[in-house]
Amino acid sequence: MRIILGLISFLILANANGQDMKLWYENPADQWEETLPLGNGLIGMMPNGKINEENIVLNEISMWSGSPQDANNYRAKSSVTEIQKLLFEGKNNEAEDLVNKNFVCVGEGSGHGNGSEVPFGCFQNFGYLNFLFFHQGESSDYKRWLDIEKAKAGTSFTNNGIKYLREYFTSFDTNVGVVRLSADKKKSIEFAMHFYRDENIEEYEIEGNEISIAGSLPDGRGGKGLKFAAKFKVIIKGGTLKNHDNQIIVKEADEALVLFTASTSYYEHDPIVYVAKEINKAAKISYANLWKGHSNKYGSLFSRVSLSIEDSISKNDIPTDRRLADFYKDPRQDNGLAALYYQFGRYLTLSSSAPDVPKALPPNLQGLWAHQIQTPWNGDYHLNINAQMNHWGVEVSNLSEYHKPFIEMIKNLAKEGTKTAKAYYGAPGWVVYMMTNIWGYTAPGEQASWGSSTASGWLCNHLWEHYQFTKDEDYLREVYPILKDAAIFYQATMVKDPKTGWLVTSPSVSPENAFELPNGKRAAVAMGPTIDNQIVRELYNAVISANEILDLKDDFTKQLKADLSLLPPAVVLSSSGRVMEWLEDYKEIEPQHRHVSHLYGLYPANFISPVSSPDWAEAAKKTLAVRGDEGTGWSRAWKILFWARLHDGDHALEILRQLLKPAFNQNTTYGGAGAGTYPNLFCAHPPFQIDGNFGGSAGIAEMLLQSHDGYIHLLPALPEFWKDGKVKGLKARGNYTVDMEWKNGKVISYKIHGKKGDKISILKNGTKIIYSI
Ligand code: FUC
Question: Which class for 388: exposed (0-12), middle (13-18), buried (19 or more C-beta within 10 A)?
């Protein structure tokens, strides 16, 4: 008996150790947010796994309407002094009226939500690949899955005693999507297949085993913009293939391989020529070799980090949608889901950007996945939290090169943004406001309340963090002028607040939040919102440090050093002991507002810390207590990072639970209703917005490892229920790689990889030690 019990507990333990990196379901997807995302950074596929009529949503990341435009208002600078004067006098609402009149973009602007009709443009769906299968009758043993360790999805079921298998992947090696249809009985593969897209198709050709599509997207001015093209090729073993109308019909095949590729002229090539070349190249490669090429390349990236957080009983055999519901009820029972969600964030990074490709785009509001033509918020790059959050995990999660497409975008914005600096302030340097697109848009949005925050400083945080993690001085030398020119803009445009004498930005907003003035009027426009004060301080510090590291002896930094003492402190406390969001202790109109911009200094910056500024850390806790644990998807993700930085792992886990709240609703809400996670683990703002996935994944890493306070902190915010676990491959600032194992909440072994001879300071189990590599 004892032996049997021993054996059972051994088996349970063995099982608990193996945490499957799979999402899986017992039913086909009914709505898009149940379909499983595949992508190679250029193209994407989302199969719904339906038995009789499979529908695969297709994507290409540069599928953007619109065209370049100069939306800067070159007369804006003549209003800036008047706007600033009104702000000095506390007449923020009047200042806001003037901003709305003279200090926003011109023309049709940023098309907040209707970009497909204006030059701003809109990221959109590519089309659909539809299969009609000829099998009849009931099916059983249904299962569909996404294996994120392999970047491959599958669907299997039994029909008429025949077991069918569909495998799907988007290759990391050649730019094709692959669907393989097979069965355990010969001659069983029979279907009709076609491509569907209503809009902007100019050519649809079907010839033998190939479908070719070409078209062009509207440029938002009544003309044509980007050209696009796609090709599909069907390769069968046995059976017959013929064309009927716009369909390819396959009968009695033993197996079928469907290849897909798409592209646009954004990459400065003819997409028709490109897709023909790619599909023909892939068609010459056997399925086995296509798979080998893909899995080698993907596997080498994904496997850089492994994480397992032990469970007493493994939940691998419970479908993912049920796990999600169970986790929300009690997150203690399924640590494996937290590990899976963490790795899913890394999977999405790898799948939604292709840093090796020239002109590669960073993931947008939806990564690279979309099923609509007019995507929410144009599927663009919002720069007052969202595009930044998309990159919060890349460094710590050992995917540093996946910062590159965003950094390239920032370099381009730094060029375009010199026009905006001139137009609005007649200032040198560069500035970009709260959103951009693939066309290099830098002007403010159409409305002050959401469109008037500058993002250039925040973008520089990414330039600087990439250096902090990589210590690549050549890279730093390359981006130093961009950091410097961003600082030059702020330095040239900040004004002295007559009340405090501090140098502040003006006009600005604390992203999308508003307050009540003493006269009872409502306004969003202000001088020196806290987030700006923190960002400018961080930027000046970065320029000063970079100048020293590179030994540039740049005189400009002398001025910056002097200016630092004239900036408001990174944190000013309100009468209630919270971090003030604005220079004045205004009455908040929406105390639970989703943006928590005034805690920028807690994350991503590091002014607020339980170690170096404990009073401010207490104030941050009070701020978060009033803000609440809920909010939109991305807002919840941000709060995981806040609590991790405050070293409160249990609270971070509680917010992870809020982030993983099962979500079904696609309608846009702002206050947190319906927010959480869809069955396919996509984050629900709602609607789907990918930032929460990336932020949530970064949050889990931040619970396990931190390195912003001058030392490497192992397990800084471990929840009580994550008792035992191990992680390999996380990155710390200084270009160090960290492996560790913990038991009962204590580190029992660890290894830090880096430059031989380096001595680094480590905080582990409450003790600081010096570690030699
Ligand atoms: C900002 C946020 C919204 C949404 C949008 C895409 O405007 O305030 O919640 O995430 O970006």
Answer: buried
Ligand 1, pocket-test mutation among 383, 512, 667, 683, most atoms within 8 A of CB: 512
Mutation test residue for ligand 1: of 110, 122, 384, 385, the one with most atoms within 8 Å of CB: 385
For residue 197, which phi and psi values (nearest 5 degrees)? -160, 135
341: exposed, middle or buried (Cβ count in 10 Å: 0-12, 13-18, 19+): buried
Q: What is the pLDDT of residues 279-309, one digit of tens each?
A: 999 999 999 999 999 999 999 999 999 999 9
pLDDT for 114 equals 80
Amino acid at site 641: L
Residues 209 and 83: beta-carbon distance below 8 Å = no
pLDDT per position as a tens digit, 71-82: 999 999 999 999
Of 679, 773, 496, 558, nearest to 49 by C-alpha is 679
Tokens 């949005």, located at residue: 445
Evaluate if residue 5 carries a pLDDT over 80. Answer: no
Question: Residue 697: what residue type?
Answer: S
- Which residues fall within 8 angstroms of residue 204, CB to CB, at 6 or more apart? 195, 211, 212, 213, 246
What is the reported pTM? 0.97
Determine which residue's CA is closest to atom 10 belonging to ligand 1. Answer: 386
Pairing of strands 508-509, 525-526: antiparallel
Task: Give percent above pLDDT 70 in the chain.
Answer: 97
Gap between the Cα atoms of 728 and 735, Å rounded: 15
655 membership: H or E segment, kind and range: helix 649-659
Q: Choose among 32, 732, 688: nearest CA to 363.
A: 688
Distances (CA, A) of 409 to 25, 481, 535, 571, 663: 37, 15, 19, 31, 32
Judged against a pLDDT cut of 80, whether residue 395 lies above it is answered with: yes
3-class DSSP assignment, residue 165: strand
Q: What is the DSSP string of 531-543?
A: HHHHHHHHHHHHH
Q: Is the separation of the CB atoms in 95 and 437 below 8 Å?
A: no
Nearest of 348, 313, 362 to residue 334 by alpha carbon: 313
Task: Look up residue 510 and give its amino acid.
Answer: S
Q: Which atom of ligand 1 is nearest to the CA of 376?
A: 6
Mapping DSSP onto H, E and C, the string for 219-270 reads CCCCCEEEEEEEEEEEEEECCEEEEECCEEEEEEECEEEEEEEEEEHHHCCC
Q: Tell me the C-alpha to C-alpha distance, in Å, between residue 655 and each of 281, 327, 333, 695.
A: 47, 12, 16, 12
| Residues found in the chain | 773
Beta strands 712-714 and 725-732: pairing type? Answer: unpaired
Note the pLDDT of residue 264.
98
